[in-house]
Amino acid sequence: MGQWAGQLPVETAARSAALAQRIAARIAAAGGWVPFADFMQWALYEPELGYYARHDQAFGPHGDFLTAPEISPLFGAVLADVLASAVAETGLAVEFGAGSGALAEDLLTRWHALGVLPQRYAIVEVSAGLAARQAERLQPLAERLGVELVWWQRLPERFAAAVVANEVLDVLPVHVVGTRGAETFERGVVVAESGTEAAASAAPRFAWADRPLTPAAASALAGIELPRSADGEYLSEVAPAVPAWVRTVAERLAPGSLWALIDYGYEREILYAPFRSRGTLQGYYRHRVVEDVLAWPGAIDLTAFVDFTAVVTALEASGLTVHEWRRQGDFLLRHGILERLTERAEPGSAAYVQAARAVQRLIMPHEMGELFQVVVAGR
User: Fold this and answer.
1) What is the mean pLDDT of the chain?
2) What are the tens digits of pLDDT across the range 300-324?
3) Does residue 217 lie in a domain region?
4) Among 28, 116, 261, 357, which one has the highest count of C-beta atoms within 10 angstroms of its own C-beta?
5) Coiled coil where (predicted)?
């Protein structure tokens, strides 16, 4: 995956410029500086203009990123096996951020084969455009299988279900924090000064500026010891939104529920290792890394690695039992992805070779196998 240095389509650039104007006004109203978490929230989720509000935002080879369900349907088949008992007991499946609908399609297909279809499949989706795409893809299958397909605008106060959140946590807003000698600071966003009259009339540009820690960042850093260097700075991210969101969902789960969370990240000791001194925050556009995450708000995906120690702590604090916490490769192998592979195609056939290559991407350490974590918790 290389660096992106191209031009945005005209319509996309215009939407980004409109969002930049809106963000610049909010920064001015806040006194000229905001935490990056605010900028990320607006860039990704602002109604009509944010990245996940875009109707043309695409997953897959022609989009900005690939998720595991787009790589192989066997990912969903394995998850379906793990969650089958909760589906059978509760009759409800819930997916957060269903993307292209590929994972839902694979889960329902496998549950149908196992004879444990849910009565209802509920999707929680922030993008109206994606929800429309999901309906177009999934409604015919749901009707054929006799499953009620619904989109939840808000969570019930209490529900029992098989729950999936695949690559949801990494796009929750993060605060950028750092150390410089004995100092601990927060790196936020300001409107960059325009050097010329032409620049002043263009869309606002943004720049970084350091300030003392905000209360939210300081609270999130409790229990985290950031590395320090006498002759340089160390940057990373904290995401108080992640454990807060996990608790919000976990506290609503009734007995019989199982929840699978999948994302890229590490346990805390590895995430904040001294060698990771530039943090994990990145932007993506058309499968290319965008180094300047402040450029083109709303047009690029923004993401940061997940602190899975915080995730597991939040689950347990909410009364859930963590049944598994494994690297994705270990998880998929333990739960039979190779067996699912041999069922899919005749070993040695062209179809088998193609499917095996896809599985390799999911399980190999140098691909997604080591980088992604899977947590399964239940009540």
Assistant:
1) 92
2) 999 999 999 999 999 999 999 999 9
3) no
4) 261
5) none
